[in-house]
Amino acid sequence: MRRFTPSWLYSTAFLLAATAGFINALGLLGAEHRGVSHVTGALTDAGAQAGQLGPLARLDGLWIVLSFLLGSMLSGLIVGDATLRMGRRYGVGLLLEGVLLLAAYLAASEGASQASSHLTAVACGMQNALASNFSGAVLRTTHMTGVVTDLGILLGQAIRGVQVDTWRLWLFLALLGGFFAGAAGGALVQSRLGHGALLLPAAGVSAGGLGYWFWVHLRRRRGEGA
Questions:
Q1: pLDDT reading at 1 higher than 50
Q2: Is 158's pLDDT higher than 70?
């Protein structure tokens, strides 16, 4: 039996992954030259610095990890569950992400590049945790290692002759394509606007949060449930 998959899932996955790719490109090209949408590189950097007995102040990668963790914690407080289900407080989470990105822009404008990186990592941690799975498919919008792994498993199973869920295949491709497109767009906009490029994802996720809030309340007024 073919499983029903809402059409908005693919476009939403693409847009959120594009947002994360955009933000991460800004982090890599900015003053700190550091990725902020994932923790693997930051944790490796912190561990390598610790192994070299560097000064504690240089363990800035660890602060990225802790910032990402804080964002995930905030998402858990706001939404309460990692399973994607319409009607939950995703709008609040997206609006707060927008506020964090705006704060990151303001920090960068004042020359506080480290604080800006930490704030964007908090925003990415929150986004990544807002909806972490859907019907057994892991949704990771801010880093692609797991997505590539799951895509590879599906392709290997298909070659073997095992029947796979094609909707998962398209979902993972949407995430990969979105992240790549967002990173390319981030590099392009950053070359023209500098740290002002942060205002674009800040406005985008804020608009998405407001749109989601309006949609939920409209459905409730119509008595359709959430």
A1: no
A2: yes
